[in-house]
Amino acid sequence: MFVIMRAGCTVDERNRLVRVIKKVGLPVQVSESGHRVVIGIGGDEERLRDTPLDTFPGVEKVVALKTPHPLASRECRSESTSIQAGRARIGGNGLTIIAGPCAVEDGELLLEIAHAARAAGAHMLRGGAFKPRTSPYKFQGLGEQGLRLLRDAGRAAGLAVVTEAMDTGHVDLVAEYADVIQIGSRNMQNFALLKAVAKSDIPVLLKRGQAATITEWLCAAEYLLAGGNENVALCERGLVSFDSAVRHHLDLSAVPLVKRLSHLPVLVDPSHGTGKRELVPAMARAAVAAGADGVMVEIHQTPHLALSDARQALLPAEFEQLVPQLHAIHDIVRTGSVAVT
Ligand code: PEP
Ligand code: MN
């Protein structure tokens, strides 16, 4: 449900309404569209049965919604959300480029990658310190030491950093070192983790589960918004498929679809999305053409020696070639025209 306030409603009228809704224990999201204030309400509307919101001063109308994810929906907030993530911004008019190794492996290597990423035009550095590996015998990440190396490399290169937390017990630790906390594909419906991350106000990159529907993905985002964290960005990263020709099937139709359904920024990870280095540049370009707010790309100076996801990392030089192409495509999408030179 959402409430549209009358044009020119007072701050007192708006605050009073927010107080009343919060008092019955429902989450609220206030947004301004043009000069209209819209108050989105999540949760069980039954709790407002005895509170006729449409009679409150300043209220123009109350609109019922059928969606299970009202706070994430564009109906509740028509303007697109953008998020400040350290020195980087996700969403809005810009294109956010995130690059880095799959995992933090070594301080010197990481520093080199961070500088190369920055020189090529990346805004953020990625790298896992807690790695979700299929096999327990594979490299699991460096833990807190990896977080420290990531933070230091980001600082040295002037990049914001994003890294994954897999466990509720690691949320505060990751938040201490990172600008953005990643919830990985395998944990998209780890509801305890979603609730824990919702309690912190660190920006979140919520990857789509590899077998999750769009509704399930947006409901996972709703957990974060309803729990009080409004700094949520989404990341499509490919779905399981019947066809092993690619590692995952990158669902690029999710980009324009989710951008219609939701106000949240949508990024794309073409690295996990294909699992094949040679397909990554084309799918990154396609993602931006589809309207993505950014891409997250794995890069490594010696991909064949990478401790995880060796088959999908781009070389820094390949990444450097890609970045201007992404900006050129983004300009066309944003302005709706091809610059004639
Ligand atoms: C990652 O980005 O490091 C990762 C493990 O991705 P995903 O959760 O999408 O598999
Ligand atoms: Mn990886």
Strand and helix map with partners:
Blueprint: E1 2-5, H1 11-23, E2 28-33, E3 36-41, E4 59-63, E5 83-85, E6 88-90, E7 96-100, H2 107-120, E8 124-126, H3 144-157, E9 160-164, H4 171-177, E10 180-183, H5 191-199, E11 204-207, H6 214-226, E12 232-236, H7 254-261, E13 266-268, H8 270-274, H9 280-289, E14 294-298, H10 316-335
Parallel strand pairs: 7-8, 7-14, 8-9, 9-10, 10-11, 11-12, 12-13, 13-14
Antiparallel strand pairs: 1-3, 1-4, 2-3, 5-6
This protein binds phosphoenolpyruvate and manganese (II) ion (MN).
Structure description:
With 341 residues, the protein is of the alpha/beta class. It has 2 domains: 2-65, Phospho-2-dehydro-3-deoxyheptonate aldolase, domain 1 (Alpha-Beta Plaits, 2-Layer Sandwich), CATH 3.30.70.1140; 83-335, Aldolase class I (TIM Barrel). 33% of the residues lie in helices and 18% in strands. It contains 10 helices and 14 strands. The strands form 3 sheets. An 8-stranded parallel beta barrel has the order 7-8-9-10-11-12-13-14, surrounded by 7 helices. Helix 2 runs parallel beside helix 3 and helix 9 (280-289) runs parallel beside helix 10 (316-335). The N and C termini lie far apart (49 Å). Bound molecules: phosphoenolpyruvate and manganese (II) ion (MN). Phosphoenolpyruvate is lined by residues 102, 128, 132, 164, 184-186, 207, 237, 269, 272.
